[in-house]
Protein backbone atom coordinates (compact mmCIF):
# COMPACT_ATOMS: atom_id res chain seq x y z
CA UNK A 1 0.00 0.00 0.00
CA UNK A 2 0.98 3.65 -0.47
CA UNK A 3 0.91 5.04 3.05
CA UNK A 4 1.26 8.64 4.23
CA UNK A 5 2.82 9.09 7.68
CA UNK A 6 2.53 12.35 9.56
CA UNK A 7 2.40 13.60 13.17
CA UNK A 8 2.28 16.73 15.33
CA UNK A 9 5.63 16.32 17.11
CA UNK A 10 7.72 17.09 14.00
CA UNK A 11 9.46 15.08 11.28
CA UNK A 12 12.41 14.49 13.63
CA UNK A 13 10.31 12.83 16.37
CA UNK A 14 11.32 9.28 17.38
CA UNK A 15 7.68 8.17 17.46
CA UNK A 16 7.20 9.03 13.79
CA UNK A 17 10.43 7.23 12.87
CA UNK A 18 9.34 4.08 14.73
CA UNK A 19 5.95 4.04 13.01
CA UNK A 20 7.29 4.79 9.52
CA UNK A 21 10.03 2.16 9.87
CA UNK A 22 7.55 -0.50 11.02
CA UNK A 23 5.31 0.21 8.03
CA UNK A 24 8.26 0.23 5.63
CA UNK A 25 9.63 -3.03 7.04
CA UNK A 26 6.16 -4.56 6.57
CA UNK A 27 6.49 -3.92 2.84
CA UNK A 28 4.48 -0.72 2.44
CA UNK A 29 5.50 2.25 0.29
CA UNK A 30 5.86 4.99 2.91
CA UNK A 31 5.97 8.76 2.46
CA UNK A 32 6.56 11.07 5.42
CA UNK A 33 5.12 14.58 5.43
CA UNK A 34 5.40 16.14 8.90
CA UNK A 35 5.76 19.55 10.58
CA UNK A 36 9.17 21.18 10.70
CA UNK A 37 8.64 21.96 14.39
CA UNK A 38 6.57 20.84 17.38
CA UNK A 39 2.83 21.33 16.77
CA UNK A 40 1.17 19.61 19.75
CA UNK A 41 -2.24 20.94 20.74
CA UNK A 42 -2.81 22.61 17.36
CA UNK A 43 -6.03 20.64 16.80
CA UNK A 44 -7.34 21.14 13.24
CA UNK A 45 -5.84 24.55 12.54
CA UNK A 46 -4.61 25.24 9.01
CA UNK A 47 -2.41 27.85 7.34
CA UNK A 48 -4.00 30.03 4.66
CA UNK A 49 -2.69 33.59 5.14
CA UNK A 50 0.85 32.71 4.09
CA UNK A 51 2.63 30.21 1.88
CA UNK A 52 3.67 26.83 3.22
CA UNK A 53 7.28 25.77 2.73
CA UNK A 54 7.70 22.08 1.91
CA UNK A 55 11.28 20.79 1.99
CA UNK A 56 12.81 17.33 1.49
CA UNK A 57 14.49 16.01 4.63
CA UNK A 58 16.54 12.99 5.62
CA UNK A 59 15.53 10.93 8.65
CA UNK A 60 18.52 8.93 9.82
CA UNK A 61 17.94 5.19 9.63
CA UNK A 62 14.79 5.55 7.53
CA UNK A 63 14.92 4.91 3.78
CA UNK A 64 11.72 6.63 2.66
CA UNK A 65 10.71 9.85 0.94
CA UNK A 66 10.34 12.49 3.67
CA UNK A 67 9.38 16.15 3.76
CA UNK A 68 9.03 18.86 6.38
CA UNK A 69 6.19 21.39 6.24
CA UNK A 70 6.18 24.87 7.75
CA UNK A 71 2.67 24.40 9.06
CA UNK A 72 0.30 22.31 11.12
CA UNK A 73 -0.44 18.56 11.04
CA UNK A 74 -3.54 19.17 8.93
CA UNK A 75 -1.42 21.28 6.57
CA UNK A 76 0.92 18.32 6.14
CA UNK A 77 -1.88 16.10 4.87
CA UNK A 78 -3.20 18.83 2.58
CA UNK A 79 0.29 19.38 1.18
CA UNK A 80 0.92 15.68 0.59
CA UNK A 81 -2.34 15.18 -1.26
CA UNK A 82 -1.97 18.31 -3.39
CA UNK A 83 1.69 18.38 -4.41
CA UNK A 84 2.84 14.75 -4.50
CA UNK A 85 1.98 12.70 -7.55
CA UNK A 86 0.81 9.76 -5.47
CA UNK A 87 -2.52 8.29 -4.44
CA UNK A 88 -2.45 7.33 -0.78
CA UNK A 89 -4.29 4.20 0.30
CA UNK A 90 -4.00 4.96 4.00
CA UNK A 91 -2.70 7.57 6.45
CA UNK A 92 -1.01 7.00 9.81
CA UNK A 93 -0.54 9.87 12.26
CA UNK A 94 1.92 9.35 15.14
CA UNK A 95 3.28 7.83 17.20
CA UNK A 96 2.41 10.78 19.42
CA UNK A 97 4.39 11.63 22.55
CA UNK A 98 1.57 11.19 25.08
CA UNK A 99 -1.95 9.75 25.05
CA UNK A 100 -4.75 11.24 22.96
CA UNK A 101 -7.54 9.67 25.00
CA UNK A 102 -10.94 10.91 26.14
CA UNK A 103 -11.90 14.34 24.91
CA UNK A 104 -8.25 15.29 24.42
CA UNK A 105 -8.89 14.20 20.84
CA UNK A 106 -10.43 17.65 20.35
CA UNK A 107 -7.07 19.34 21.00
CA UNK A 108 -4.89 16.80 19.25
CA UNK A 109 -2.96 17.66 16.11
CA UNK A 110 -2.28 13.95 15.74
CA UNK A 111 -5.96 13.06 15.57
CA UNK A 112 -6.80 16.09 13.43
CA UNK A 113 -4.25 15.05 10.81
CA UNK A 114 -6.04 11.69 10.58
CA UNK A 115 -9.38 13.47 10.24
CA UNK A 116 -7.94 15.69 7.51
CA UNK A 117 -6.93 12.57 5.59
CA UNK A 118 -10.55 11.46 5.78
CA UNK A 119 -11.60 14.70 4.11
CA UNK A 120 -9.59 13.48 1.12
CA UNK A 121 -11.28 10.05 1.25
CA UNK A 122 -8.31 8.36 2.91
CA UNK A 123 -8.87 6.05 5.87
CA UNK A 124 -6.57 6.89 8.75
CA UNK A 125 -5.21 5.67 12.07
CA UNK A 126 -3.96 8.00 14.81
CA UNK A 127 -1.43 6.40 17.17
CA UNK A 128 -0.37 7.72 20.58
CA UNK A 129 2.02 6.48 23.26
CA UNK A 130 1.81 7.05 27.01
CA UNK A 131 4.21 9.82 28.05
CA UNK A 132 7.01 8.79 30.36
CA UNK A 133 10.08 10.75 31.42
CA UNK A 134 12.13 7.59 31.00
CA UNK A 135 12.24 5.37 27.91
CA UNK A 136 9.27 5.67 25.54
CA UNK A 137 8.26 2.36 23.96
CA UNK A 138 7.30 3.67 20.53
CA UNK A 139 8.20 0.27 19.11
CA UNK A 140 5.31 -1.23 21.07
CA UNK A 141 2.88 1.40 19.76
CA UNK A 142 4.03 0.83 16.18
CA UNK A 143 3.62 -2.93 16.59
CA UNK A 144 0.10 -2.52 17.98
CA UNK A 145 -0.80 -0.10 15.18
CA UNK A 146 0.29 -2.58 12.49
CA UNK A 147 -1.49 -5.43 14.24
CA UNK A 148 -4.74 -3.46 14.35
CA UNK A 149 -4.23 -2.25 10.79
CA UNK A 150 -3.79 -5.78 9.44
CA UNK A 151 -7.02 -6.86 11.17
CA UNK A 152 -9.24 -3.98 10.06
CA UNK A 153 -7.82 -2.55 6.82
CA UNK A 154 -10.08 -4.64 4.58
CA UNK A 155 -13.23 -4.12 6.65
CA UNK A 156 -13.21 -0.37 7.32
CA UNK A 157 -15.97 1.54 5.63
CA UNK A 158 -14.77 4.58 3.75
CA UNK A 159 -14.10 7.00 5.27
CA UNK A 160 -13.08 6.39 8.88
CA UNK A 161 -10.64 7.41 11.63
CA UNK A 162 -9.42 4.92 14.23
CA UNK A 163 -7.70 6.26 17.34
CA UNK A 164 -5.15 4.01 19.06
CA UNK A 165 -3.53 4.61 22.47
CA UNK A 166 -0.79 2.37 23.82
CA UNK A 167 0.83 2.19 27.28
CA UNK A 168 4.58 2.77 27.19
CA UNK A 169 5.86 -0.69 28.02
CA UNK A 170 7.27 -3.77 26.31
CA UNK A 171 4.75 -5.39 23.96
CA UNK A 172 4.78 -8.63 25.93
CA UNK A 173 3.73 -6.78 29.09
CA UNK A 174 0.55 -5.31 27.59
CA UNK A 175 -2.68 -6.66 29.08
CA UNK A 176 -4.06 -6.88 25.55
CA UNK A 177 -5.78 -4.75 22.92
CA UNK A 178 -9.38 -3.65 23.48
CA UNK A 179 -12.00 -1.62 21.62
CA UNK A 180 -13.11 1.28 23.82
CA UNK A 181 -15.16 4.44 23.78
CA UNK A 182 -13.67 7.83 24.68
CA UNK A 183 -13.14 8.32 28.42
CA UNK A 184 -14.53 11.78 29.09
CA UNK A 185 -13.08 15.15 30.05
CA UNK A 186 -10.11 15.86 32.32
CA UNK A 187 -10.06 19.38 33.75
CA UNK A 188 -6.81 21.33 33.46
CA UNK A 189 -5.81 23.80 36.19
CA UNK A 190 -3.62 26.86 35.69
CA UNK A 191 -1.43 29.10 37.80
CA UNK A 192 -1.82 32.82 37.05
CA UNK A 193 1.18 35.13 37.47
CA UNK A 194 0.60 38.93 37.26
CA UNK A 195 2.48 40.46 34.34
CA UNK A 196 1.98 44.20 33.81
CA UNK A 197 -1.73 44.82 33.26
CA UNK A 198 -2.37 41.16 32.51
CA UNK A 199 -1.31 37.67 33.50
CA UNK A 200 0.96 34.86 32.47
CA UNK A 201 -0.77 31.54 33.00
CA UNK A 202 0.92 28.15 33.22
CA UNK A 203 -0.62 24.69 33.12
CA UNK A 204 -0.01 23.26 36.59
CA UNK A 205 -1.87 19.97 36.82
CA UNK A 206 -4.68 17.81 35.51
CA UNK A 207 -7.48 16.32 37.56
CA UNK A 208 -7.15 12.70 38.56
CA UNK A 209 -10.43 10.84 38.64
CA UNK A 210 -12.12 7.49 38.42
CA UNK A 211 -12.89 6.65 34.81
CA UNK A 212 -15.99 4.92 33.51
CA UNK A 213 -15.50 1.20 32.95
CA UNK A 214 -14.93 0.30 29.34
CA UNK A 215 -13.54 3.68 28.32
CA UNK A 216 -10.09 4.20 26.85
CA UNK A 217 -8.75 5.92 29.97
CA UNK A 218 -10.06 3.13 32.21
CA UNK A 219 -8.47 0.39 30.11
CA UNK A 220 -5.20 2.26 29.63
CA UNK A 221 -4.82 2.40 33.42
CA UNK A 222 -5.03 -1.40 33.41
CA UNK A 223 -2.30 -1.81 30.82
CA UNK A 224 -4.46 -2.34 27.73
CA UNK A 225 -3.90 -0.70 24.37
CA UNK A 226 -7.17 0.85 23.20
CA UNK A 227 -8.79 1.19 19.78
CA UNK A 228 -11.54 3.79 19.31
CA UNK A 229 -13.36 4.57 16.05
CA UNK A 230 -14.13 8.29 15.88
CA UNK A 231 -17.10 10.14 14.44
CA UNK A 232 -16.78 13.84 13.64
CA UNK A 233 -20.19 14.59 12.11
CA UNK A 234 -21.24 17.73 13.99
CA UNK A 235 -24.88 17.49 12.97
CA UNK A 236 -27.48 16.90 15.70
CA UNK A 237 -30.37 15.23 13.83
CA UNK A 238 -32.82 15.25 16.77
CA UNK A 239 -32.30 18.95 17.54
CA UNK A 240 -32.37 19.81 13.84
CA UNK A 241 -35.77 18.11 13.54
CA UNK A 242 -37.14 20.10 16.49
CA UNK A 243 -35.77 23.37 15.15
CA UNK A 244 -37.40 22.76 11.77
CA UNK A 245 -40.71 22.28 13.55
CA UNK A 246 -40.31 25.48 15.62
CA UNK A 247 -38.86 27.94 13.11
Automatic annotation (TrEMBL):
Catalytic activity: a ribonucleoside 5'-phosphate + H2O = a ribonucleoside + phosphate
Domain Survival protein SurE-like phosphatase/nucleotidase: 3-183
Alphabetical keyword list: Cytoplasm, Hydrolase, Metal-binding, Nucleotide-binding
Database matches in InterPro entries: SurE, SurE-like_Pase/nucleotidase, SurE-like_sf
Cofactor: a divalent metal cation
UniProt-listed Enzyme Commission number(s): 3.1.3.5
Subcellular location: Cytoplasm
One of the Pfam families matching this protein, by short name: SurE
Enzyme class: hydrolase
Cofactor binding description: Binds 1 divalent metal cation per subunit.
Transmembrane segments: none
Family per similarity comment: Belongs to the SurE nucleotidase family.
Function: Nucleotidase that shows phosphatase activity on nucleoside 5'-monophosphates.
Protein name as it appears in the record: 5'-nucleotidase SurE
Gene source species: Peptoniphilus equinus
Gene: surE
